[in-house]
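In response to reviewer comment 3 from the previous cycle, which asked for concrete evidence that the modeling workflow produces usable outputs, we include below a single protein chain processed end to end. The sequence was submitted unchanged, and the resulting structure tokens are shown without manual editing.
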Amino acid sequence: MSSPLSHRVPDLAALELLLAVARHGSLGKAAKELGITQPAASGRIRSMEARLGVVLVERSPRGSRLTDAGVLVTDWARRIVEAAEAFDAGAQALRDRRDSRLRVAASMTIAEYLLPGWLIALRTQRPGTAVSLLAGNSVAVAAHLLGGEADLGFVEGLAVPEGLEGTVIGRDRLIVVAAPTHPWARRRTPLTPAELAATALILREQGSGTRQVLDAALAAHGGLAAPLLELASTTAVKAAAVSGAGPSVLSELAVREELAARRLVKIPVEGIRLSRDLRAVWPTGPQPAGPARDLLVLTRPGREAGGLPDPPRATRTA
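The workflow returned the following structure tokens.
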């Protein structure tokens, strides 16, 4: 079996040196053009001659001259270097196209309350990058990424969706809220997990990060009752709760203004923790690059009110 081609063909640096010798008729001038020492250039030529098994350059006090074999190899080398330059130009075009757009998929809370600030900061760094956003629940975000429809995603569930890698960028607390007119707003004792589980709530749909956390937290307390209303956006759930339709469980990020204005009231619950990790996710394989990598960096602390912590090492789900 023959040896690999890479063991028999000189590398690009050696071929570029040979072309420079042909242009200048001098090994020293060729070395200077390429930014290497003359001894290094001589060594590179000798190594190439040994690999090919022919003499390429004759040295003399008057300069360096290509042998007949050297002239022929130089002609081949020129075509190889030109092909490499075309390859590099094509690869750069691909990078430029990648860097000119960013497709983001985000679950609703992150899309509505965190992502806008990050995208404004990204625009300062990359004003020429066009950003498109696909908002949905965590299951939908995973589907967009796995389908090649998004470059970077953000989810709020309990774990990294299957087929993706991710890194934790912060934590989010869920709280029980109700309109000031709701009986729970006048309670003097916290809700129990069993009371919360037995109550028909205004909830996000199945597949949302909020629903995943609630299902897990209340599984040991009889599980969630059938929803009073099941809505597909955080804004819709919040509006229904403000209207007095019933209590709900929402991200603390989503209800800051409503709590401050007393349009909603926080209802204490004892005995369970309603918190979740916020994660950046991407398809298993290479780490995010270009604008996606820059956006990931912008999710570090100090970029958004609430102080998101430094992400740990990426985790992978097979």
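The radius of gyration is 31 Å. We consider this sufficient to address the reviewer's concern, and the full set will be provided in the supplementary archive.
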